[in-house]
Amino acid sequence: MLCSNCFSNEGLKITAEKIGDKSETACENCGSNDGLELSKEKLVELMQVFFSQGSVLQNIGGYAPVYKISDKKEMESVEFEEPLKSDYELLKQKTDLVVFHYGPPLWRLGLTEQYDALTESNDEEKEKALNDILEASNEIILPIGTKLYRLRINANDLLNNTTFDTPRKDLKTSYSRFDTPDIDIFYSSPDLETCLHETRVTIADEIILATFKTKKELKILNIADSFTEKEGITEFEMISILMYKLCTTNEEEYEKCRFISEFIKKNEFEGFKFLSYYTNVKDEELYNIAIFGFPLKEDKIELQSINRIKLRRVDYTFSFGPAI
């Protein structure tokens, strides 16, 4: 029907190459002998992957494409620039499908009732939202011997154990997602690759890895997964949707995250498990472990070893969509 060489937009063409099949015959549309063949079913898949999946915006804390496809021609509501415009017209002709602007339900953006309460409500409503989070989250125990990783970039004084503990207030120049001037947090991960992602290492960095093990059982709150949601609620009340948004978006959500960490600490947990921001770019969910205070100094964990890490290879897996 069509082949990958029928398209002029580079992203659409490369996406078609990934989806298409090899063919022994010339393309009936463009006459190309080396393009990858796309049946009608493959063209529908191409439109779904490029226009719908490819229009999901980064950093919104949910799955909400800007565009979707439909077989109802009256729903069409887009106008692309060349060369994508011509490619789109060709796809419409061959599939009888159109692209339209999609207005997702707000919960797909993580905008739940508790999110609203943490954003602009009074103290009573904030307290209720925080209690909802606490009730839906499950307590877990980190057993003795749990391995945790922590990285330092271009670290000095490697022989001093406190180099790898929570930084002292007088040494801090900024605060992360959950810590504040009043809440000291030891950030760590049970997974080394997640630790590398979180520290945003570069090829030029001297990367020092500290491996710890817990010396005592630690009572922490799981705000990452396995939520016990109330029966009969809608997506607008689901804590799992809220926490996914708060942990997978940028600095604009840090204030709400800090409300939550303060509340967890006030309820006498020693830390919490939370989703890594880099879950956004992995097939599986990634996690971090936050421990309040200075766990190395407080003898809750022990330093097992330190190593230098050298980045040997960095790979990117990516997809395409229309420039919006």
Can you describe this structure in just a few lines?
The strands form 4 sheets. The chain has a 5-stranded mixed beta sheet with strand order 5-9-10-11-7. The chain has a 3-stranded antiparallel beta sheet with strand order 6-8-12.
Describe the secondary-structure layout:
Layout: E1 2-3, H1 10-19, E2 37-38, H2 40-52, E3 67-70, H3 84-95, E4 98-101, H4 113-120, H5 123-136, E5 138-142, E6 147-153, E7 185-188, H6 192-199, E8 207-214, E9 218-222, H7 239-247, H8 254-266, E10 271-275, E11 287-292, E12 301-309
Report on this structure.
This protein has helices at residues 10-19, 40-52, 84-95, 113-120, 123-136, 192-199, 239-247, 254-266; strands at 2-3, 37-38, 67-70, 98-101, 138-142, 147-153, 185-188, 207-214, 218-222, 271-275, 287-292, 301-309. With 324 residues, the chain is an alpha+beta fold. It folds into 2 domains: 2-104, no CATH class; 108-309, no CATH class. Strands 5-9-10-11-7 form a 5-stranded mixed sheet. The radius of gyration is 25 Å and the shape is globular. The model has no long low-confidence stretch (mean pLDDT 93).
Structural class: alpha+beta
The whole-angstrom Rg is 25 Å
How far is the N terminus from the C terminus? 28 Å
Outline: globular
Low-confidence stretches: none
